[in-house]
Design a protein that fits this description.
Number of domains of chain B: 1
Shape of chain B: globular
Oligomer: heterodimer
Structural class of chain A: alpha+beta
Structural class of chain B: mainly alpha
Distance between the termini of chain B: 7 Å
Number of helices of chain A: 5
Radius of gyration of chain B: 23 Å
Helix content of chain B: over 70%
Distance between the termini of chain A: 14 Å
Number of helices of chain B: 17
CATH topology of the largest domain in chain A: Alpha-Beta Plaits
Number of strands of chain A: 4
Largest sheet of chain A: 4 strands, antiparallel
CATH class of the largest domain in chain A: Alpha Beta
Low-confidence stretches of chain A: none
Strand order of the largest sheet of chain A: 2-3-1-4
Mean pLDDT of chain A: 89
Strand content of chain B: under 5%
Order of helices and strands of chain A: EHEHHHEHE
Largest interface: A-B, 14 and 15 residues
Low-confidence stretches of chain B: 50-84
Shape of chain A: elongated
CATH architecture of the largest domain in chain A: 2-Layer Sandwich
Number of domains of chain A: 2
Radius of gyration of chain A: 25 Å
């Protein structure tokens, strides 16, 4: 994930519906929302936040094509060119024989590639130790909205008031 | 985000306009004209690809004992003097290919609503009338198949020849004789009638329940429909396989594949889904079914995408085992399509793979393609034509073989059937409110959202 350091205002909501309706209201008032954390996925929240669409699908396609090429190259090279082998009376290079493994490697590369991409782009996985928590209750029963003050032209008081107006039961300050 | 969409009215009647009727009738008329032209050409020696030249080649290309048997069968047919009326035979075979294919398309409508009932699926409720309209075509294809079998069955099905079963006779064939318990005319006709009566009968029940539900409301009809839908799935689980053996696999009487039932079901299923999707897209283009949103379309697109891959998977599973095991009595099936009959079937064989796998796979892969009308239409047509080619390559080599062709006769029959099917669908859609207004899952369906 991108840089997280800075000063944040954290709005805590009690209800998923409240937070879902608060998002467009706040954005309309000119507040730039960093992220909303929720114990479960909320339908329509992504669109309401206006996040750009994920590009993981493109990455998946690239990984798939890579896996497909690796599999075919590997088999054609080893079985057909470097040390031609006849298996089951078929030609050394016989594409139908190669299809199951090509399929498997395509899927394998896609799956591993996507997980790796996801971990890297979100700063997760082994070796990462900095996991900012705006409010631990977002893993339990609260819905937490993070607003980065440095990225907003509005003052702290204005944002705080807007958050309370939109239904936040608490507004806290968090510094990383 | 449900609140962002405004839900259009659920009260809408489909009007089968006289213009649409006229277009379909013209299409059918062109089909008939093409059939007549094709029959005329075929009767005068044109149309099909060269017969004489490939007969010899076919005999020369005999590989293993399977091919030798086939050669013998072809020789026996020639001796029986079938050649003179090969264009009549070609008409029977074309009728058979199309009626088998369109039977599948029609029955998949019932299959779709049945598994949606069984799963108590909510999302599909809003366009349920479309799959529900397809099986009305079954009596038509059923009658065509029955007539084709009575008048042309002897030319279509090698196993109907009596001489095959005379022990010690010149044509005695122990392999086919061993299959007599299943492949005999009375049992075959019984099964043929049974399939259509049960499929159509269960559809009538579900259709009536659905129409009553529209008028009266309540969950009683829904719960009854679940039971009848489940009953259909049990029946179809068996009959989809047996009908595939009967209608298609028994043409190549010596050959068998344990994948064949699945393979045909997969073929019918994806083509049926393409018909459903295409009908919905066409209705939307004419201003109907506004309540079908991009999430529904995306799910339908995924369905077509996924099942075109499923078909390929089953197709390849059948092919790879035969290719790998390399048993002559099994490989003959593919050899006939690759090299037999002068290599005539090699082109449709690969066209099938292209239209049913590569094209929809690449075109429907991205997210947005699955709800873009124009792309959906192209992909659906590709699948619909592709699976016609699939049945063509499955049925033609074993029936017409060297005298097969792909000319006005084939185009005409396909056009005639597709126009008749369209007519049947449109007249069914006209009979009820286009959205099942009292369906218990309708509310869920109207708010269907997969973001």
């Amino acid at each position: 994930m991108a840089e997280i350091s800075g000063k944040y205002l954290v709005g805590v909501y009690d209800d998923d519906d409240t937070v879902l309706h608060a998002v467009p209201k706040l954005r309309k008032a000119g507040v730039k929302i960093k992220e909303v954390y929720s114990p479960f996925p909320i339908h329509g929240l992504d669109e309401a936040l206006g996040h750009p669409r994920t590009r993981i699908g493109i990455a998946a396609f690239m990984f798939g094509v890579t896996g497909c090429c690796v599999a075919l190259t590997l088999m054609i090279w080893t079985m057909g060119i470097d040390w031609p082998m006849i298996v089951g009376g078929k030609d050394p290079i016989s594409i139908p024989n190669y299809i199951p493994i090509t399929f498997e490697l395509t899927v394998l590369f896609t799956a591993f590639g996507m997980v790796t991409t996801f971990f890297i782009s979100n700063g997760l996985g082994p070796g990462t130790h900095f996991h900012p928590r705006f409010d631990v209750r977002s893993t339990d029963n609260k819905f937490v909205m993070a607003i980065e003050l440095g990225r907003n032209s509005m003052t702290e008081d204005e944002i705080s008031r807007a958050l309370r107006d939109s239904g936040a039961e608490e507004v806290n300050v968090k510094q990383f | 985000m449900a609140s962002a969409h405004s839900i259009p009215s659920i009260e809408e009647r489909f009007e089968f306009t006289s213009g649409a009727k006229r277009n379909l009738l013209i299409g059918g008329g062109v089909g008939v004209a093409l059939i007549l032209l094709g029959a005329y050409l075929a009767a005068n020696g044109g149309g099909g690809h060269e017969v004489a030249a490939h007969g010899a080649e076919q005999a020369a290309a005999a590989v293993g004992h399977g091919a030798a048997e086939h050669g013998a069968a072809a020789g026996h047919e020639a001796a029986a003097g079938h050649e003179g009326a090969s264009w009549v035979k070609r008409i029977w075979v074309n009728l058979w290919v199309n009626s088998v294919y369109f039977t599948g398309l029609a029955v998949i409508g019932m299959f779709f609503i049945s598994y949606n009932y069984l799963a108590q699926a909510g999302w599909s409720a809003v366009f349920k009338r479309v799959p529900e309209a397809l099986p009305a075509f079954l009596p038509f294809t059923g009658i065509v198949m029955l007539l084709t079998f009575f008048f042309g069955g002897h030319e279509l099905f090698h196993w109907t020849h009596e001489g095959l079963y005379e022990v010690g006779g010149p044509e005695y064939d122990p392999i086919i004789a061993g299959k007599r318990g299943f492949l005999n005319t009375p049992f075959f006709v019984f099964r043929l009638v049974f399939y259509f009566v049960v499929w159509y009968g269960l559809w009538r029940v579900i259709r009536n329940l659905s129409l009553q539900e529209d008028e009266i409301g309540g969950t009683e009809f829904y719960e009854k429909s679940i039971r009848f839908g489940t009953a259909f799935l049990v029946v179809f689980g068996v009959t989809s396989s047996t009908s595939a053996w009967d209608f298609v696999m028994s043409i190549d009487t010596h050959w068998f594949s344990t994948m064949f039932g699945w393979y045909t079901l997969a073929s019918w299923h994806v083509a049926g889904l393409a018909v459903i999707t295409l009908t919905i897209v066409m209705l939307r283009e004419r201003g109907y079914l506004r309540a079908v949103n991009s999430s529904h379309l995306r799910d339908l697109g995924k369905f077509v995408f996924a099942f075109s891959i499923f078909w390929t998977y089953v197709w390849f599973a059948q092919f790879l085992l035969i290719y790998y095991a390399n048993l002559p009595e099994e490989t003959i099936y593919y050899l006939e399509r690759f090299r037999g009959h002068g290599g005539f079937f090699k082109v449709p064989f690969f066209i099938t793979l292209f239209l049913n796998f590569f094209f929809p796979f690449l075109v429907l892969m991205t997210r947005d393609a699955k709800f873009t009308h124009s792309i959906l239409k192209v992909a659906c047509w590709s699948v619909i034509i592709g699976h016609y080619m699939d049945f063509y390559t499955n049925i033609m080599p074993g029936t017409l073989g060297a005298s097969a062709g792909f000319g006005p006769l084939e185009w005409g029959f396909f056009l005639l059937f597709i126009c008749a099917f369209g007519y049947s669908i449109a007249s069914q859609l006209e009979k009820a409110n286009l959205i099942p207004r009292n369906h218990p899952m309708l509310e869920e369906s109207l708010h269907h959202d997969i973001a």
